[in-house]
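Before our next group meeting I need something from you. Please put the record directly below this note.
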Amino acid sequence: LEQECADEPRIQVSDAPTLQRPDFVIAGCGGLGTIASLVLSYACVQQHKQARFTLIDPDIPERRNLNRQFFYALEQGNKAEVLAESLAARYPHEYVAVPQYLEKCSARHFRPGSVLVGCLDNSAARATAAKVMNARSIPYVDGGAGAHAGQVATYLPGDNVPMTPGPTPAQRASCQDNPIPSVITTNIVVGSCLAHAALYVASTGERMGFRYAARPRIALRQE
């Protein structure tokens, strides 16, 4: 991925489209989810639209992740609830916190015009998001980021969402002991691209994707 982006270093990002139905379901309120929610909230204010945000995450902040997650402190509690409260204090939108896993969400958390924004970190969660996309007939914007690279892809109901095998228990334990270094710049870029793709599909119904790499030189490509 980094080599592919290095071959085409031009940044090609269009202006934010006009929103028609601002209703976003943010699955995952960590590093990417906080950035995407913040950018989407600001974009809706900029376009004089009052939006609805459903923030889904069952977890609490971990000390090792605080450097790339805005709004959180260790003693605050559930991520979705803290993020909803923090954003509601800044923006005139409706924020609904759902402190549980995506697969446990009911039909009331989705609307015909919703856009599912996946800020997820494993294949099992992405498989659940793909099922929700098809069951609710709503677009799904998926984002992922490593230390120095990331990508965003948009899927429409009926699309095949590619999955990669998850880690073995031994690999998972190794990752916990030696986690991938987190780089806030990567999260900001990829989270912002997630928000832009969500805005685009919400207003046009069309797909948009991005690829980003910071090594060997910074490259951002719209797809």
